[in-house]
Amino acid sequence: MDFLFGEFIVTGDPLILGAQVSILLASLAIVFVLTYFKKWKWLWTEWITTVDHKKIGIMYIIAAIIMLFRGGVDALMIRTQLALPELEFLHAGHYNAVFTTHGVIMILFMAMPLMFGLFNIAVPLQIGARDVAFPFLNSLSFWLFFMGAMLFNISFVIGGSPDAGWLAYPPLSELSGSPGVGQNFYIWGIQISGIGSLASGINFVATILKMRAPGMKLMQMPMFTWSVLASSLTIMFAFPILTVTLALLFLDRYFGAHFFTLDGGGNPMMYVNLIWMWGHPEVYIVILPAFGIFSDVVSTFAKKKLFGYKSMVFALMSISIVSFFTWLHHFFTMGSGASVNAFFAVTTMIIAIPTGVKIFNWLFTMYKGRINFSTPMLWTIAFIPCFVVGGMTGVMLSVAPADFQFHNSYFLIAHFHQVLIGGVVFGYFAGMYYWWPKMFGFKLDEKIGKWAFWMWNIGFYVCFMPQYALGLMGMTRRFNEYEMELGWQPLNIVSTVGAFIMGLGFLFQVWQIVYSLKNHKKEKTGDAWDGRTLEWSIPSPAPMYNFARLPHVSSQDEWWEEKQRRAAGVAVEPEKPLEPIHMPKNSGIPFIASIFWFMVGFGFVWDWLWLIIPGAIGVFATMYARSFSFDTDYYIPVDEVRRTEEAALKGAK
């Protein structure tokens, strides 16, 4: 009992007790609903074992929304603590844990799955493919991400959260600074989900390079697909660095190695270099797909071909490459020397050039366009001034002498939230609204969506603009309280009010989804926004096989050009006869394998060999089972394809 309530279950904090009760009640409610409505078999056959990229994308998005709620609650607790001087809402240890989990969850367990969800929804449809290159691996990637996220999140109520910061710098993350199991949860939660992220990057590079529709050249791909290629290539080179870095930290903690401990001959600065060699490409990994979303949305809602297509491609790929040469600007103050600081200051300024090019491309695309101000376009327009300000403050931070003043201040906090919320989150919201009809066959309610849009945007500026001033006034990050005499209280109160307004915006979005589920009008044409790319040429939601006949591509905006040809009365080539469609079978192995990975991670967290060993055996057993699985695919007969297509055509009338 002493272990159960002394070390295993976190006790003594009313906020954590509330979380434990909420988790228990939510879990019981889910079990009750699934049992009462007899949905366990449906859950297993339709979702848990699916290898359909569209369903996997939906699961990614649902997980990301849940993580946005969790990370958002953390943010509101942080802002509540800082609203007033010397407030005791969160004690110092709890505050450290909250800002640590907030950063990890928002970057790795909210932005990344939301990104992968949109990858899965749109990319195969945009390139005219019937699935991703490796459907089984796609399912395994999702479940590894999900189990890694769950392993990290349960630390809040079991064992204790990590509290060494979202990048876990030594010596705080070593045993001397974090003797509990919280840092082990950090390492293994990120490691397991990171394996899934790396596999997804490889999968989408293979999909884009090898599975494009007949005739589609690289320079005819939609811009979102280009951005996914750039992001996925960056994942392939960046995430192995994270894997090795966390493995070395674990060896320090578990086996008493001294890679990052000064007293044992190691060097904590090696960790800082390694983590930012992953960490700075990571912020571009999540922003590049948002650039692609904005490009497709602007072109669609301005009714114009994207301005400067080739320059956009060059900009995306340039950012992907140069992002690996900017990491040291995160620690100009660490004594690297003037020459090193100058090199990384220059590379940071250089990467601003291709980033800025895209702003002009979008503006020129909108120029003289017939703009439709639906919610995807509103999020895109809101992004532009927000990202310009964020980019300008980023250039200010790239100047090494100035960074000595800005470093670790709230000026920096305001900057990276400006680009990560105003860039990444706004971009993924635009993509979610844009492709929602393709996922579910109906649009989200526009009126409620605009309320959510304004709450988010007003709240964003009210929250983060004061933080620039607070940073210049000397307020530093990571402190949980300050003195009245410093004069920071008024701006902190304003900032906290802004955070709660953004929280209200999230509630509007939840209401919007619930309301739209109950009161939606079915989108019959499949072309909800009068789109330009191939995903809008098929019914909504897309059938299991995506395309009854693989399209032949001859131009950049193939679907738009096809509609123009039809309107002009150009003779349409006769359709080829339907053929049986080759598809992968569902598999429960990815889900089962992820459970074994969870067992391994949980076992290492607590140093339980009795759990590590069967978990590792299970991992290898599932790999073995997959290696000798030969009945992994099937053909959809022509009659079934014809019935599906006729039903979609009938529904469109």
UniProtKB/TrEMBL annotation:
This is Cbb3-type cytochrome c oxidase subunit I. Pfam families: COX1. The chain crosses the membrane at residues 15-37, 58-78, 98-123, 135-158, 185-206, 226-251, 271-294, 306-328, 340-364, 376-400, 412-436, 448-470, 490-514, 586-602. Belongs to the heme-copper respiratory oxidase family. The keyword Cell membrane does not apply. PANTHER family: CYTOCHROME BO(3) UBIQUINOL OXIDASE SUBUNIT 1 (PTHR10422:SF35), CYTOCHROME C OXIDASE SUBUNIT 1 (PTHR10422). PROSITE patterns: COX1 (PS50855). Residues 38-554 form the Cytochrome oxidase subunit I profile domain. SUPFAM superfamilies: Cytochrome c oxidase subunit I-like. Signal peptide: none annotated. It comes from Paenibacillus thailandensis. It comes from the Bacteria. Keywords: Copper, Electron transport, Heme, Iron, Membrane, Metal-binding, Respiratory chain, Transmembrane, Transmembrane helix, Transport. The keyword Signal does not apply.
